Amino acid sequence: MPEPQSTRPLIEHVSDLPAYSPPAHSGTLNRRLLSREFGAGFEMILGQVEPGGEAFPHYHRDESQVVYVLKGEALIRLGEEEPRRCGPGWVIRIPPGLVHDVRVASNEALEVIVLYAPPLGAEGFFEVAR
Fold first, then answer.
1. Would the CA dihedral through 18, 60, 50, 85 be positive or negative?
2. Is residue 6 part of a domain?
3. Which residue has the higher pLDDT, 31 or 7?
């Protein structure tokens, strides 16, 4: 059986993963569950956005994005559509190039799983003027 490409252990607790705040976001703390180095062809993120936090209007040129809401509620706008209120169990599919933004819509932190395919590149965020 081939070895995974990543040097990270195969079993880890999420609290042991490095946390980071992505560009074009406020109040967001992400942890990369699966990175491009693993060689799976996608990237998997656990995202937590505090009340009042948001992802400003932006897009990803080459990456498809899927967001699955675990906890909390958010107003999510895709393109020119009116924002939709999404809570636990909602799946949001965002094709490459589609401008989107997210705003926490409750007093509870938003917790999501995010997949990018292919993995998000170093130049993956393109912020759009509001």
1. negative
2. no
3. 31
